[in-house]
Amino acid sequence: MLVSRRLLLAAGLSAPFFASVSAYADTLDDIIKAGVLKVAVPQDFPPFGSVGPDLKPVGYDIDVANLIAQKLGVKAELVPVTSANRIPYLQTKKVDLVISTLGKNPEREKVIDFSVAYAPFFNGVFGPADLKVSKPEDLAGMTVGVTRGSIEDLELSKLVPPNTDIKRYEDNNATISAFLSGQVKVIATGNVVAAAILARNPPKKPEVKFLIKNSPCYVGLNKDEPKLLAKVDAILTAARTDGTLDTFSKKWLGAPLPADL
Amino acid sequence: MAVGLDFGALADYVPVFVKGVGVTVELTVVGGTLGISLGVTCAWVKTQGPKLLRPVVSLYVELIRNTPFLIQLFFIFFGLPSIGVSMGEMEAAILAMVINLGAYACEIIRAGIEATPRGQFEAGASLAMSRFQTFRHVVLRPALQRIWPALTSQLVIVMFGSAVCSQIAVEDITFAANFIQSRNFRAFEAYIVATLLYLALAILLRQGMRLLGTALFPRRRAAR
Fold first, then answer.
1. How far apart are CA A121 and CA A189, in angstroms?
2. Residue B171's domain is classified under what CATH number?
3. What is the mean pLDDT of residues A7-22?
């Protein structure tokens, strides 16, 4: 009886030490232990992420998410997010990684970390052929549609003259709809979105007017996760060397992976 | 995980919130006034108006009350341009709110009218008033008085519904909060401010409606 009480006491005293140990554990260990990697993926951004015929997400980003999960030996849990809420999802630890066509900029680098690039991506201003625009100044007095919180939004807001009217839509589908329905004649968006619009064969075809930014996609992680970052970087570098990323690029973007990525 | 609140990060964005409040108030006041007018008209048609029009109004009311506001908004903003009816996002937002509130207000006001004792109609008729005069002077005011609190609540709901309009780039309070958190990632602070702004506006709107009620219905207290 006395012994068991002592054991209980010992267990009770040591419990806080065990607790403090697990509080310092790396997210990578937690992922391996749980057997599940939670990844924020787009569902409104084909071909990087969209809802397939079986209502499951498909796309370049989803393939990369599954690749990383597979290399870690865990199951991927895909969490659909929008451009505007993907970083809050990461910050509030609802997901472990953001693989959501995420571009890099100094503001974002203040709050999260980035892996090596995994996909090519550039964005620019697109409009119909008869529209004479070749630089940001030409947009004076015009209305431009953009997805709120996207990298195009942040960059364009700095580039254009003050009298340019920027309409910021909730997500890429709204931006695409605004262009297709003629609510805006000019949009700032990615090459991939413009390709998606072209695929619908609209009466006014979006042509690239000028490039805003060449910003390849990176995997976003929370800060202070060196082990997870190193692991993700290693997996992506290996995938580039062995041609896996090139296969994804050909499959989803119809073009091989650029050599300078 | 330590989450520090930093409202100083919002300092640069005060004008965005100010504009947001302006837009939300504009949407609510214009949408609310026109919507309640539409509701009164529809309620008149349903209770007193031409019998031919009644099924049309019923169809409208049921269609709007049984579909989501967001879909109605998208239909107007993204759908109508394909048949050549194109309008800016503010016009689309106000139109959607008027159509939406009109349907709900119609049913609320109709309930008020139907609760009017038959004797009041007869009293109007005995004073040689036309059916419209009776409706305008004898029936409508006590009917509105009866349903004033319900109408006030519906108006507040419509104001909150205006948050959805930020989806089509209307720059209201919700847009301001989304815009700011997409720039400085201070989601918690931005939404706290947005919440407080909506709360303040809702309280102001309720008090305003209460005062308007006391002015419109002087003989009895409006809010009971």
1. 11
2. 1.10.3720.10
3. 49
For residue B187, give the chain A residue with the closest CA. A88
Query: Could you tell me which residues come within 8 angstroms of residue A67 by beta carbon, excluding any fewer than 6 positions away?
Result: A235, A239, A244
Domain enclosing residue B185, as ranges: 13-216
Question: Under an 8 A CB cutoff, do A148 and B89 touch?
Answer: no
Asked whether residue B189 is domain-assigned, the answer is yes
Nearest to A168 among B179, B184, B185 (CB): B179
Per-residue pLDDT at A9 = 52
In a domain, B149, yes or no: yes
Is residue A42 within a helix (H) or strand (E), and if so which, with residue range?
strand A36-42
Least CB-CB distance to A181: which of B78, B169, B181? B78
Give per-residue pLDDT as tens, A185-210: 999 998 778 877 876 777 888 888 88
Average pLDDT along chain B: 90
Query: How many CB atoms are located within 10 Å of the residue A55 CB?
Result: 6
pLDDT of residue A68: 96
Interface with chain A: mutation pick from B89, B182, B188, highest number of A CBs within 10 Å: B182
* pLDDT tens by residue, A106-158: 999 999 999 999 998 888 899 998 888 988 999 999 999 999 988 889 889 89
From the list B81, B166, B187, the residue facing A170 with the nearest CB is B166
- A33-43: b (≥16 Cβ within 10 Å) or e: eeeebbbbbbb
List, in order of start, the domains of chain A with CATH numbers.
27-121+216-253 (3.40.190.10), 122-214 (3.40.190.10)
Q: What is the pLDDT of residue A26?
A: 80
Chains A, B: CB contacts within 8 A come to: 64
pLDDT of residue A214: 81
Write down the pLDDT at residue A255.
63
